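Box S2. Input/output pair 1.
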Amino acid sequence: MLPKRLPENIGKAVQAIRKEYGHYVEAKFMRNKYRLFEATSFYDPEAKKPKKVTRYLGWLTDHGQLIPARHNDIKTKVFNEIDRSNEQKIKELEESLKNAEKRALENGVRKKKTEKHEREILRALSMNARITVPELTKIIGLSNNATKYHINNLERKYDIKYLLEIDIEKFGYINYIAFLKFKDKKPTYEEMKSQLEKIPYVQVAVTTTGAYDMVIFLVVESNSEARVSTYELTKLAFPSYNVEWDMSPAYFGGLDFIPLRDRFFEILKEKIWTRTKERPRPASDEITEIEYKVLRAMNSNACADFTSIDKEIGAETGRSNYAYHQLMKRGIIKRTTINMQDLHSKFDVIFLLGQENYKLWEPNREKLILETLKEKSHYDSYSFVCDIMSPRGSMLITHIEKDEKLEESIDRLSNKIKGNNLYTLVITDLLLGLINNRLYDKTQTRHFEALISGYNYNPDKIMESTTNKD
């Protein structure tokens, strides 16, 4: 049965194709696909009246791309509906068929070009969200208006948020990951959220099924305070529940960005420098008050206009622009980037690869590195990748798409990566923060460098093995 209302992507595609063909085009849900038919008519001199002819044009993907029907299939459907003895009718239909196939082919080419341009835009925005439209047009080879159109379309399609990627190590902080298992009863969703959101060094928290019930991403000071912070967390979070905690520092390599919550800036206030006779300049892990305010303002909107930021933080015109470039120069701001908050996937999964046999794992390490650099249609296959100590191994977060099976992803990792215990945690709820999704330039990762320096990979071979070619 055809739904009363077509899915958004299908509906838009049908409308566009109707304008293109100049005839009535309708979509029918047949054999688990939306199939397009063009209804036209010609005058039948024998019957002395118009005769309706329906042509099958092809089927639509979930994203609204037309997959044209093969020539012979269309011809067969058309020719079965007409009087074969009428050569004039056949010629007219053949000509119409050629035109329809030509238009379908042109639509397919345009679709591929559009997808290519969109990937280029997403990659550019992921690496520098403040890139100007003229700069972007030089990269993708489109006009300013066309580039703006694609940006606006992508913002709507993926619900894009513009963020700062801040190097917390510049302030003396490190990343920890906590894995929780409730031994008997579990707190409610509301309890979990209310307990964690008031703890400023908690950046992301998700509930999961599998070996653990919850995973928490933390930012703590890298000295002895790390032990204090993690100990305080176990006291503050769920004190009335029987919880087993496993904690591990996380070692990043590029595909590992965790957006910071605004509450983190309550901790960062400690790093604001105050001028004194003994300390005329900020230390390497300190920032000025104006830099602090700019970081906090841009953390919620990395593409905000500097004039509006000046007004928001009560600074003189141009001060926020200057502070931003100073923070970039010092490497405190790694980049302005994006987060695609809606990838239209089924669910997200955490894979924990615990090293079980180093001799088996080491020869397969390059396969794991190569796997983590792969991308899907418009985003990284793995939105987060890091090394952990407990369990000793690696942690990966990936998206299971609507046409994908979790078992296939598990089998792919299990068959490629030997010497590991593979734990699968399906993310059921995002309690706090954001799991970042973007299309990162893989050549800027440590993993890319490791394949070249450690395994003698050719850069072109890496790109060929990991880049989406649609």
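Box S3. Input/output pair 2.
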Amino acid sequence: MFYLFYNLIFFLFFIPAALIYMFLSLLNGKSVSSVLKRFKYEQTEKERENIHFHGVSVGEIISMGKLIKTTAEHCDITISVGTETGYKTALKKYPFSEKILFSPYDFPFSVKSFIDSVNPKIFIIAEAEFWYNLYFHLKKRGLPIWIINFRVGNKNSYLRLKFYYKRIFKLVDKFFVPSMDYIEFLKKFGVDENKIILSGNLKADISYNEIGEKEREKIKERLKLAQGKKIFVAGSTSAGEEEKLFKTIKRYKSDWKFIIVPRHIERAEEIRKTGEKEGFKINMITDLKNDDYDLLIVNTIGELFKIYSIADLAFVGGSLVPTGGHNVLEPIFHSVPTITGKFYKNFQELVDTIHKEKGLMVINEAEEFSRYFEMDTEELKKIGENGKKTLNHMKGAVEIILKELEKAGVKCR
């Protein structure tokens, strides 16, 4: 009965939404091919089963990197994604995958065609992607469903829709959760505790390249950073954050150099105008000739991770405005004392854990930056060390998942 009810409701809501989306895409000159690809999938004659990984977007696809690469050393893998950006990221990072596909729309015929195409031995889903037909038809074929790095946003909203999620969670074979909180949460939906594995946070296992002292000096030289001044890096900033930030930090220009790396580089000119109004002398990285600046705006792509390595203090943006925050692990990996704003739901468990161990600073308002600019250097250094130590202790989720794969008869080492 629920199966019929779900499919009727899904059909009634989906068709108008899909038509509107395709119309708007065509109006804006965008392709609708990713929409059409999700209804029916190309079949192959390949008989070998694959380990299948699904991540809705970029964050999930990147977080599974070490697990996917290790698994792919001895197993055939396939990957599915839910967004255009996730698809491009998967193509770039995992060219060795047998297939990289968009996930199906949750119609029975689309799901069946998709399952036939990827031919999974085990279906592994990152974080939170709960479509009833997909789970129902995987389970109907006796295929194991694992959710790794299980996380949800507003837990209360899931509890309000308990009648739906209880049916979904019943179909899952294993939940790998980052914290004890999720064990208690899942038990409220009737999930057997034996199905839940405390694995730690998969994102802590993301591999980063160490940057040595010589390389850091080269970065400083390239950015014309004068000796004697401390460096503050604000990464992945969003609209509305820079103005708040500038009003607070401008009083520290005599002792600090400021570097802004916006989330979207097309905002660089807008940020320049905002900074000039606050009295900053500004340079763009693409037009950098000398060190005569207070504020450097990085209007190029792919620089942030390395630039974090030279910071004496870092701020991870998208967190002073309600966008959910960005990756706090990149500056923490370099032992840089790191600040995030209160809107960090995209990295909730990581931030809460590291903050609890005094390895990360959380602020509610931009005015609170002053406290850290005025903090003793050794005290700041201790926060950076605590962050790196906590991050190292959090690693291990990949190893736990690989052991479970071996128990399931999959040898991927």
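Caption for Box S3: The longest strand covers residues 230-237. The chain is about 45% helix and 15% strand.
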